[in-house]
Amino acid sequence: MSIDGGAIQMRNKLLQKDRITGSEILLRILLLEGVECVFGYPGGAVLYIYDAMHGDEQFRHLLTRHEQGAIHAADGYARSTGKVGVCIATSGPGATNLVTGIATAYMDSIPLVVITGNVPTSLIGTDSFQEADIIGITQPITKHSYFVRRVEELASTIREAFYIANSGRKGPVLIDIPKDVSAALTEFDYPQGAISIRGYKPQPEVSAARIEEMLSLITEADKPLILSGGGLVQSDGAEELMEFAEKTNIPVTTTLLGLGGFPSRHELWLGMPGMHGTYAANQALLACDLLISVGARFDDRVTMRLDGFAPHAKIVHIDIDAAEIGKLVPTALPVEGDAKEILQRANARLHHATKSNKAWLRQVWEWKAEVPLKYRDSETELKPQYVLEMISKTTGGEAIITTDVGQHQMWTAQFYRFQNPRSIITSGGLGTMGFGFPAAIGAQIGNPGKLVISINGDGGMQMCAQELAICAIHNIPVKIIVINNQTLGMIKQWQELIYEGRFSHIDLSGSPDFVKLAEAYGVKGLRASTKQEADQVWQEALQTAGPVLIDCMVAKDELVFPMIPQGKALSDMIMGDV
Hints:
Structural class: alpha/beta
Helix content: 25-40%
Strand content: 15-25%
Largest sheet: 6 strands, parallel
Distance between the termini: 65 Å
Number of helices: 24
CATH superfamily of the largest domain: Thiamin diphosphate (ThDP)-binding fold, Pyr/PP domains
Number of strands: 19
Strand order of the largest sheet: 3-2-4-5-7-6
CATH class of the largest domain: Alpha Beta
């Protein structure tokens, strides 16, 4: 039997109109939706669901060591593959342990289907054991939520959840399933055909007139600039952005979540803008007379003080979410719709470069050359920037990189040269510590043939270190880097520069020996304190088939520069003394 024939036969088997439980319906729909792996943690309210998994060889479930690890892993899977990530937890504390992960995905528009169990419907509202109103708790941080009261509603609810999560501006959708619903029997009837939800129009119609107006503005501009964000990556529009930039000769700056959406090797790329952005990117924002924002929401870490952001520019805002357009900055031309489609249609109208922009390009290239990212290297201390440069050079910018939050996150954004979309997996909007390592596990599950590297601080690593068990048990070959400066580095940096050196509760010198911790879980552990050691252990890690943790003992007092203090404008960059 051919592979295709086997898949068709399996699908037909899943579609059979059997009389089955709500739990079996859930598993069937997940398989029919193409879910490759569910990340979860069992508990009393979901035991019927886990019982249905028993002996089901088609269904893959990864048991994390904490519910937050499960949702971050599902998030990393979704960001790196473009598919919907799925996680499951029990009622009460199991469900509430997912809240931070739901908020993380919501802030960054990541498609997740989050499944929680709940107490039986007869006990809802009685404060029964492990009952929590997870719908009410998460309503502000989900795209939509479902409470399933009848087993007959389950199949259509799950299909709708996947559609909502992965359409329009993507985001997490929660399905709360009471225990009696997961146990109840009904005839399985797979909802066929297109999904239509009254009042929900995720794909706005693109205005041809707005595209023409945008092209006219480009023709009139002397100093145009493209600001590309995470929405461009979510729309899978990287190729279209490349064509658009090359046809218009417009330089490009990419936000933290937009990194990789435009290759860093390209001569038109200026780097990341904002608080820890490059000199060239921020100077371009200050000087441009036309700013074309593609899937960026003008986060405060990008704009800094609003009255100092792109002060001379007409702003064209391309976004699939009309609520974002004009929310923070005055918009001269709103262009609502999917970024990929808009760029495709614009490219079709651009048969050759519209303008040379020679003087403008010469200026931005001078900024890049005159004030590059740099740091004070050392032969006696290991600098964190060196570690990121080393990893970037040895991988050619082709790996999938996950980060936690803090100084190491910014050094990664600055010194790792991302070449591909969906290659940086990081918590941008919420800034969630403990995110990076579990997200790497999900990314590796979704991309088994790729090199996945998790960059962590010594603080964030201790929020998720228990997930080392999964890597060891399942031989998930994530390469884990701990940038260990024995302090809460970004907090220390702010306290040093803004709070006049009053260091308060940032000392992490009592942290565990990360090498021994890794070995305790069955993961290979290595350590580096110098450049030579870093080179050696990194090569050893790359040559190791399974997971490896490298504890990089870096200079404790290193700071992230450039930096713009909060409340200041893009023109107020602190460059450091290098």
